[in-house]
Design a protein that fits this description.
Helix content: 25-40%
Shape: elongated
Number of helices: 10
Number of strands: 14
CATH superfamily of the largest domain: Response regulator
CATH topology of the largest domain: Rossmann fold
Mean pLDDT: 92
CATH class of the largest domain: Alpha Beta
Low-confidence stretches: 284-295
Largest sheet: 6 strands, parallel
Length: about 300
């Protein structure tokens, strides 16, 4: 029985790149569904003219492409090459605007719902002043949408509780933002929603250096759940994307498209869930002993 052949394109090697956490699921799904994968990077694709590269992809027998990229601007040199192949192309972890920008099939998390769910969760934990530190693009969520989520959760609408960094990979920028939220506001937050697990790692580093206790002084909730949250101290609560499942679904969706069993939709939403651990433990502000009885 012939195996379906899929090209996988990835360029980013930074540890925060979702490829590292999603691709193992792609591999498992490919083996289960009798799919051959071949990894490639852009320099190989761009080493020839557009027509020659597209022809080469087709001559190699590829039947579909999984491209690990997002936040497209429409000027990416790979776009015309892939379009000329006429093959189905899936972006497994992208945002809604990438569908309009590329015309490709797009999977992704509903980040507005992620933020809404995270803020509502922290409100249920008893927090009123919840800060959010994020990259300035906020994964496609507008400022209006963000503060609408804040209002829906019944939280403090102080605009100072939102800090946006220019570069989410720049550690010093993230640490500067954490310092602003923790020391320069008239009233600091009691909880912090982090743009990614790596922002949360920097929060832990900052708090450890300054003897700030998590969750006693500040509760921390991360977005992603892609790192070893159970190995952090205290263990890190996260809005988990289930990266392995995203990978398995990516292969299944693309195979269904190749076989004509799935009709194109504008956006395939990947589910998320909140995994509560120690970093957002609900605190009971009572004395340990009352009238001689242990509580």
């Amino acid at each position: 029985e012939s195996r379906t052949k899929i090209l996988v394109l990835n360029d980013e090697q930074d540890i925060s790149n979702p490829f590292h956490y999603i691709f193992p699921g792609v591999q498992i799904g490919a083996e289960t569904l009798n799919v051959n994968l071949e990894l490639c990077s852009s320099p190989s694709i761009l080493s020839q003219s557009e027509d020659k590269s597209a022809t080469r992809i087709l001559k190699c027998g590829f039947q579909g492409i999984i491209w690990f990229a997002n936040n497209f601007n429409g000027n990416e040199p790979q776009l015309p090459i892939f379009r000329k192949t006429g093959l189905p192309i899936l972006l497994p972890h992208a945002i809604r605007k990438d569908r309009n920008m590329t015309g490709f099939h797009v999977m992704g998390v509903d980040f507005r719902k992620v933020i809404e769910d995270g803020l509502r969760y922290l409100a249920r934990q008893g927090h009123q002043r919840v800060a959010h530190i994020a990259s300035k693009d906020m994964r496609g969520v507008t400022l209006e949408e963000y503060f609408q989520c804040v209002r829906m959760a019944g939280l403090d609408e102080d605009t100072g509780l939102l800090y946006l960094t220019d570069d989410h990979l720049h550690k010093e920028q993230v640490l500067c933002g954490i310092d602003f939220l923790m020391r320069r506001l008239e009233q600091p937050p009691s909880a912090l929603l982090c743009f990614s697990d790596f922002f949360a790692v920097y929060v832990y580093e900052y708090c450890s250096a300054r003897k700030i206790r998590i969750p006693d002084d500040i509760a921390v909730l991360s977005i992603g759940g892609q790192i070893g949250c159970n190995f952090m101290n205290p263990t890190l609560s996260a809005i988990d994307f289930n990266s392995m499942e995203i990978g398995r679904n990516a292969i299944r969706y693309l195979l269904e498209i190749i076989c004509g069993k799935r009709h194109p939709v504008p956006f395939i939403t990947s589910p998320h869930r909140i995994v509560e651990r120690e970093s957002t433990r609900k605190l009971i502000y009572q004395q340990k002993y009352r009238k001689g009885n242990q509580l």
